[in-house]
Amino acid sequence: MSTAAQILAIAIAVMLASVWLMESFFYRHPRLYPLFLLEPRDFDAVKLWIVNLGFYNFTTGVALALGVVLARTGHVPQGEALVAFTAAQHVFLALVLLATERRLWLNTLLEGVPAAVLLLLVLL
Questions:
Q1: CA atoms within 13 A on the CB side of 19
Q2: Mean of per-residue pLDDT scores for the chain
Q3: Threshold 0.90, pTM exceeds
Q4: Domain of 33?
């Protein structure tokens, strides 16, 4: 796996950790309303899903970091496979997000474009 792919994988992992914090612990903050399209009246209804999604993003970030660690410690095929799968997963999920809620087009780009670039770096 190239150095560029490893750096991008770690950058995406850090981004996912940030999203984990926002979704799992700070989703009620007014500055995040536009990011999640949430209003205070919705908090109780969405808590189960948004907190679960946050931890999903955390574990996905861990998978990316683990893939880089595997690649750097002599387990290149396994690390590349983990990073490639995770990147492909996020490309797919970005498309699902766009199909589900077009107003979240910026979120779609932030999730999908780095993941697509990472996938290309790993596969090429």
A1: 23
A2: 90
A3: no
A4: 3-123
Q: Which of 12, 47, 9, 13 is nearest to 28 (CA)?
A: 47
Determine contact, residues 29/2, Cβ cutoff 8 Å. Answer: no
| Separation of alpha carbons 63 and 41, rounded Å | 34
Q: At what angle do helices 3-25 and 105-123 cross, to 10 degrees?
A: 150
What's the structural domain count of the chain? 1
Total number of residues shown for the chain = 124
74: left (phi over 0), alpha (psi -120 to 50) or beta: left
**What residues contact 80, with CB distance under 8 A and at least 6 apart?**
1, 67, 71, 122
Q: What is the pLDDT of residues 4-28, one digit of tens each?
A: 999 999 999 999 999 998 888 877 7
Complete DSSP assignment for 5-50: HHHHHHHHHHHHHHHHHHHHHSTTSGGGHHHHT--GGGHHHHHHHH
